[in-house]
Amino acid sequence: MPKLNFPPVRLRARRNGERIEVWDSLRGSWLVLTPEEWVRRHLIEFLAERCGMPRQRIVQEYPVPLNGQPQRADIVVVDDNGRPSILAECKAAGVAMDDRVLAQAVRYNSVLGAGMIILTNGIEHRCYRFDGARYSPCALPVKR
Q1: What pTM does this model have?
Q2: What is the pLDDT of residue 28?
């Protein structure tokens, strides 16, 4: 897997036939280690360790009912009341962080109403604040 623009993480991995799987401690299950999952594992650790997000508030594959079709946001961080506060969309390292990725996250957020969107391919990270009317670029929410 490629080196990402995140601090290094320690992952528990195993080989299962031809596949490599990684342990997901949040869901308590083994997942196939795809390029997108590699990025997601790093972002989850970054949110927990560097941004101070409680792990129990980090939800993966958060359901998003969009136009009658079930969709899933890669990561959603919920607040004390269980409402989405951060929506994160992860892509594989080779995927460009372009307007299509932002549009996908904005569509999901039109249902969820999170105050922040994070887009990452592990190399490039984009962050946007949503004030209820428009999106503005911001910095990742690193705790000081």
Answers
A1: 0.91
A2: 86
Task: Return d(Cα 90, Cα 46) in angstroms, integer.
Answer: 13
Q: Which fold has domain 13-137?
A: tt1808, chain A (3.90.1570)
Structure tokens at 122: 């592990």
Q: How far is CA 51 from the centre of its chain?
A: 13
Supply φ then ψ for residue 51, to 5 degrees. Answer: -105, -10
Q: Where are the domains of the chain?
A: 13-137
Of 33, 29, 27, the residue nearest 9 (C-alpha)? 33
Q: What is the secondary structure of 26-79 as a DSSP string?
A: TTTEEEE--HHHHHHHHHHHIIIIIS---GGGEEEEEEEEETTEEEEEEEEEE-
Within the chain, which residues score under 70 in pLDDT?
Answer: 144
Please give the pLDDT value at position 144: 56
> Tokens 């887009």 identify what position?
119
At 143 the pLDDT is 73
The single-letter code of the amino acid at 83 is: R
Q: Give the whole-angstrom CA distance, residue 86 versus residue 112.
A: 9
